[in-house]
Design brief:
The complex is a heterodimer of chains A (about 180) and B (about 170).
Chain A: H1 2-14, H2 18-68, E1 80-88, E2 95-96, E3 98-103, E4 110-114, E5 120-122, E6 136-137, E7 143-145, E8 152-163, E9 166-177
Antiparallel strand pairs in A: 1-3, 2-7, 3-4, 4-5, 6-8, 7-8, 8-9
Chain B: H1 6-23, H2 28-77, H3 81-87, E1 96-99, E2 115-123, E3 129-139, E4 145-147, E5 152-157
Antiparallel strand pairs in B: 1-2, 2-3, 3-4, 3-5
Classes of the chains: A alpha+beta (about 180), B alpha+beta (about 170).
Chain lengths: ~180, ~170
């Protein structure tokens, strides 16, 4: 029918009415807002996941270094001698920010402590070996002796990873068995 | 004016209408189909993120459980030999599960209690050495629990180890 075709053609040329455009814009805004929210949430989820993996692996790596490999050829705390073991700067709860010890094999006394940059460092050992990690300690008191058991030291690996203004944390205690008198 | 008749006129109408239809945009079915594809793609992306998150959590739990089992096994290993002579029997030191102290790690879910298993088996007759077996079980989001694939097994032989230790 030629008449109907002409009417449709005329209607198309007229364009959308104001209410139509307003409704379409409102719907588009709502959809875009939802999409943006979901995208930000996805990004946060991805960031939290990556931070979780980073915290897990770095905590594990730090644990292994402290237990077995503080200084070249001297091992770690599992090679320390109890006689020379002392917690530094103890608070009333018996917790301190440093630990001095003497390795059974290797050089003389060594000391590990949490510095002002909230990372752990050793007086003697490979430079940056312990502090080369993106994680920072959340507490100064990370060394603790077990009461009534002078063969065990607890390390409070209470670590945080900072990304922008967000902080991801994970706390683990490591029990170090002192194997040598 | 020249008029078109019959089949020839029909063809002319069809040819005239084709550009008008193309200019009118997508049909509802096409838009729905495209939206479905977009939604499917987005859901796949989101599910991938959730999968990565679950994998990270699994990794974290397993590594923490591994460290816990290691510490538990070495704690027993480091005791005096006389402790093993007196206590390391199935009756005096029965194998069993104990709850992990809550301040030990923040890695596990709060919905359940992680537990560790300790067993000390005397080996040989008379006893020549002891086998220390440690394992850890941690809660899962679905209400179940998982254990380490391989428990820690240490052999403790008669050696004068840790004579200085007062507590154990």
């Amino acid at each position: 029918m030629p008449g109907t075709g002409r009417a449709a053609d005329q209607m198309r040329r007229q364009g959308f009415t104001l209410p139509e455009v307003l409704i379409a814009t409102a719907i588009t805004t709502m959809v875009m807002a939802q999409a943006a929210t979901t995208l930000v949430a996805s990004h946060r989820l991805l960031e939290a996941t990556a931070a979780d993996i980073e915290l897990t692996f770095q905590t594990r790596a730090l644990r292994e270094k402290l237990l077995y490999d503080i200084a070249e050829g001297e091992g770690g705390l599992m090679n320390a001698c109890l006689d020379e073991l002392a917690i530094q700067n103890k608070n009333p709860n018996g917790k301190g920010n440093g630990l001095s010890f003497k390795p059974k094999r290797g050089g003389g006394n060594n000391r590990i402590e949490v510095g002002s940059n909230k990372k752990i460092k050793a007086d003697r050992g490979k430079a940056g070996w312990l502090s080369r990690t993106p994680l920072v300690f959340q507490t100064d008191t990370i060394f603790e002796a077990v009461t009534n058991d002078n063969g065990t030291v607890i390390l409070n690996l209470d670590l945080a990873l900072l990304i922008a203004d967000r902080t991801y944390t994970q706390r683990n205690q490591t029990v170090v068995q002192i194997m040598n008198p | 004016m020249k008029t078109l008749k019959g089949r020839t006129r029909g063809l002319a109408d069809a040819q005239c209408q084709k550009p008008a239809r193309a200019a009118s945009g997508f049909t509802l079915v096409e838009v729905m189909f495209a939206s479905s594809l977009g939604l499917l793609l987005f859901l796949v992306l989101f599910e991938t993120l959730l999968f990565c998150r679950r994998s990270a959590a699994n990794l974290r739990w397993q590594l923490t459980a591994d460290a816990l089992a290691f510490d538990a096994a070495w704690d027993v290993f480091n005791r005096k030999t006389e402790w093993f002579d007196l206590n390391a029997t199935p009756t005096a030191f029965p194998a069993g599960w104990q709850a992990v102290p809550p301040d030990r790690s923040s890695a596990f879910l709060r919905t359940g209690t992680p537990a560790y298993y300790l067993e000390v088996q005397p080996m040989g007759r008379p006893v020549t050495h002891w086998q220390i077996i440690a394992n850890v079980q941690w809660p899962l989001p679905n209400g179940g629990a998982r254990r380490l694939a391989q428990p820690y097994i240490l052999e403790r032989h008669r050696a004068d180890r840790n004579l200085f230790r007062s507590g154990l």
